[in-house]
TrEMBL record:
GO cellular component: mitochondrial outer membrane; plasma membrane
Transmembrane segments: 56-84, 104-124
Function: Choline transporter.
Subcellular location(s) of the protein: Cell membrane; Mitochondrion outer membrane
Protein name as catalogued: Choline transporter-like protein
Main localization category: membrane
Biological source species: Heliornis fulica
Gene: Slc44a2
Family: Belongs to the CTL (choline transporter-like) family.
Catalytic activity: choline(out) + n H(+)(in) = choline(in) + n H(+)(out); ethanolamine(out) + n H(+)(in) = ethanolamine(in) + n H(+)(out)
GO MF term set: antiporter activity
Record membrane topology: Multi-pass membrane protein
Keyword annotations of the record: Antiport, Cell membrane, Glycoprotein, Membrane, Mitochondrion, Mitochondrion outer membrane, Phosphoprotein, Transmembrane, Transmembrane helix, Transport
PANTHER family: CHOLINE TRANSPORTER-LIKE (SLC FAMILY 44) (PTHR12385), CHOLINE TRANSPORTER-LIKE PROTEIN 2 (PTHR12385:SF34)
């Protein structure tokens, strides 16, 4: 009969194509000796997909937390200058470091919660992209249409949450309120000044773009 031999537990993973100590090659010419795995399948290998999914989720969460920390720090530094009655007497010695310390000491939970919401949406988007990749070979028009609609909706939801989070972080830096209260106040403030917000947002985005070009050009 045809059989496959396995290497010894401490032997190196070498693929042997021939059998020198038996006549298996004559009885079964297609027989091969293939290395599979030391010690069999463990619990780690059973939950490998779950662990990688958790790793991806934590990557999104931590990346969004770092971005949120930077946004709150900048907002706190700008607010310390804007709300100073007597400039430069009322300004702190190091406004950027002071804002960074306040963000870490008082607002870490709010930043983590806002980053968590955004990370969940991003993980759902990655899952939809994976499903879309797996369904490319299938000829199911309805499934492709449904996935396209879901991808579009979650893309819009991610953009909206990013915009709302950025303004909520500004409210956190200025007033020191929690994330939910800051997000609610920021939303109603934006709705009351929707046209002014749209114009200022585009102008500031363009100024930031010019600043990035200046920095990259000077470094280059």
């Amino acid at each position: 009969r045809c059989w496959r031999s396995t290497p010894r537990p401490r032997a190196p993973a070498v693929l042997f194509q021939t059998f020198n100590t038996s006549n298996v090659t004559k009885l079964c010419p297609d027989a091969q000796c293939l290395f599979a795995l030391y010690g069999g399948e463990t619990t780690y290998h059973k939950y490998l997909i779950v662990l990688q999914f958790f790793n991806l989720f934590m990557f999104f969460w931590l990346a969004n937390f770092v971005i949120a920390l930077g946004q709150v720090t900048l907002a706190g530094a700008f607010a310390s200058y804007y709300w100073a009655f007597k400039k430069p007497d009322d300004l702190p010695a190091f406004p950027l470091f002071s804002a960074f310390g306040r963000a870490l000491r008082y607002h870490t939970g709010s930043l983590a919660f806002g980053s968590l919401i955004l990370a969940i949406v991003q993980v759902i988007r990655v899952t939809l992209e994976y499903l879309d990749h797996r369904l490319k070979a299938a000829d199911n028009k309805f499934a492709k249409f449904l996935l396209s609609c879901l991808k579009c909706c979650f893309w819009c939801l991610e953009k909206f949450i990013k915009f709302l989070n950025r303004n909520a972080y500004i409210m956190i830096a200025v007033y020191g309120t929690n994330f939910c209260t800051s997000a609610r106040n920021a939303f109603f403030l934006l709705m009351r000044n929707i046209i002014r917000v749209a114009v200022l947002d585009k102008v500031t985005d363009f100024l930031f773009f010019l600043g990035k070009l200046l920095i990259v050009g000077s470094v280059g």
